[in-house]
Description:
Elements: E1 4-10, H1 16-30, E2 36-43, E3 50-57, H2 63-74, E4 81-87, E5 99-109, E6 115-126, E7 131-135, H3 141-163
Antiparallel strand pairs: 1-3, 1-4, 2-3, 5-6, 6-7
Amino acid sequence: MGSTYIFIYVSKDAEEREAWEVLHTVFTWLDKPIQREVIDEIYLPNTLRTQSLVVRVDDGCSTEQLASEFSVLLGTLPNGVEMQFVEGADEFQIDMEEVDVQYFRDESKANNGFVVWTDACVRLHHRPSGLVARCKSDRNRLRNLAGATALLKAVLASSQAQRR
């Protein structure tokens, strides 16, 4: 079984404390010794408040198992917080000739709360669909490129599944 991707979106209207509790629960869940990693985290402008989070899970759980695990952990999601599970994105094929790759410099939040600048950020633009995926979770360009590619596959697989 391939990876499952979890997309978590927090709207600007979400209650800050409730959204923080959801994200704190997710990060606590990520500390388990299973193949789970944060692919991307986007912050609201000029804040350290998370706007969206993408997590890849490689522990062989199905989407239904993960959804039930999160429903037990979180109960009902607060207003303004959405969670989406995407499965089977690893088998999705992308023609890399249709993708523009850009490297850029950006800041990321370090574990100690300080801002760290890195030149290894990657942005992929899929020309046929217009979708953009980016990854800046690592200080290594190749790992960020792999993360952005996996994220683009997950988003394309999700959009294709929604069209069906």
